[in-house]
Amino acid sequence: xxxxxxxxxxxxxxxxxxxxxxxxxxxxxxxxxxxxxxxxxxxxxxxxxxxxxxxxxxxxxxxxxxxxxxxxxxxxxxxxxxxxxxxxxxxxxxxxxxxxxxxxxxxx
Amino acid sequence: xxxxxxxxxxxxxxxxxxxxxxxxxxxxxxxxxxxxxxxxxxxxxxxxxxxxxxxxxxxxxxxxxxxxxxxxxxxxxxxxxxxxxxxxxxxxxxxxxxxxxxxxxxxxxxxxxxxxxxxxxxxxxxxxxxxxxxxxxxxxxxxxxxxxxxxxxxxxxxxxxxxxxxxxxxxxxxxxxxxxxxxxxxxxxxxxxxxxxxxxxxxxxxxxxxxxxxxxxxxxxxxxxxxxxxxxxxxxx
Lengths: 108, 237
Description:
Oligomer: heterodimer
Radius of gyration of chain A: 20 Å
Strand content of chain B: under 5%
Order of helices and strands of chain A: HHHH
Structural class of chain A: mainly alpha
Mean pLDDT of chain A: 88
Number of strands of chain A: 0
Largest interface: A-B, 67 and 91 residues
Shape of chain A: extended
Radius of gyration of chain B: 20 Å
Largest sheet of chain B: none
Order of helices and strands of chain B: HHHHHHHHHHH
Low-confidence stretches of chain A: none
Shape of chain B: globular
């Protein structure tokens, strides 16, 4: 992409994001009731999306070719273990990422 | 004039302590994002601009991949809608809180990211503090931490003394942590696991490049079909 295309892509991402933020305030001004189905989707879509994003991050990992997704598996295991023990978000992220980087650079 | 300045000072003093946990988080994650952008080959003004204009962490991390790929504004727009869908519901729960705040409201809505939402939902301004200014300070402080972190990361990313291969894993780690926190906070895990499994199914079916949009549609459809059992079993949906 050239610079114009890059900035245009950023622009539509900003537009899409802001649309989701402004929509409820535009659609449901003072006192207009929010449809039940929208309220329901709001509650359940959020937890479902983060499962999807985990899969999205790992979409290019191949479990049938070397290194069989092992660096990712170890990295995630460290994140989960660190988070279960310390429950400090930043620590969990840092530990998992460091483990993954070390594995990728020195082992696999 | 003096009065106005005074109420701004009081709102700032009331808001600032609440934003401290976010200060560390946003500086750290923002810097990681800036460094990630830097190692992907973008000059520092890209993470700076993105954190100013998009101000949605997950989406900004995802955007790096999009910017490295082929020009495809429609997919980028759809992805932003899908990832941002949760904001619709943040907005719905903030309708009353942000009512009647005039022009400030525009920025408050603009800056309603996950962290600002959870903060604005849980803390209330003290009685002697202007409501609008209080929320304005919270939103503005949070965004400035993020922009600062992202810009610093973008500027100093090239001076990092170690090899950065694999740094992109921080995005995976971030989503895994959010997912874990979610599992911890919910009574039943049906929805979280559905999101994970349905996406996995779509990945196998549609492949890495095209699975995201079908996954989102399938998830929304299945959740709508399961509306009755899910509303009954869980806490009041």
